Amino acid sequence: MNAFKAFKACVPVAWSPNLYITLVRGIPGTRRLHRRTLEALRLRKCNRTVMRWNTPTVRGMLQQVKRLVAIETEEMYKARKQKEVNHRALRPPLVIKHLPPPASHSS
């Protein structure tokens, strides 16, 4: 079992009231039924995330397109966003002082 399947297996999707769904693979080349399902989920572009209620209907739609999407709970989504914000945070500037060379007094 690869790491992604292990990650998906341990996600407690059944207990989360909201699901954050991200389209991670492109739509071109997929079946018409899958495209219609993604359209119903309001996923039109790659790497876009939508929030949906965790209902049996939505879970059935996600089961149909599980190869194209990544599913996160609310806690996982917030943790990922916070990690991205911390990564993009401003860092203190690198200050380099260019001092003139010491003057040598030779007489």
From TrEMBL:
Domain Large ribosomal subunit protein uL30-like ferredoxin-like fold: 20-69
Alphabetical list of CDD domains matching this protein: Ribosomal_L30
Cited SUPFAM superfamilies: Ribosomal protein L30p/L7e
GO molecular function term, any single one: structural constituent of ribosome
GO biological process, one term: translation
InterPro entries from the UniProt entry: Ribo_uL30_ferredoxin-like_sf, Ribosomal_uL30_bac-type, Ribosomal_uL30_ferredoxin-like
Keywords per UniProt: Ribonucleoprotein, Ribosomal protein
GO cellular component term of the entry, any: large ribosomal subunit
Record family assignment: Belongs to the universal ribosomal protein uL30 family.
HAMAP family recorded: Ribosomal_uL30_B
Protein's recorded name: Large ribosomal subunit protein uL30m
Organism encoding this protein: Liquidambar formosana
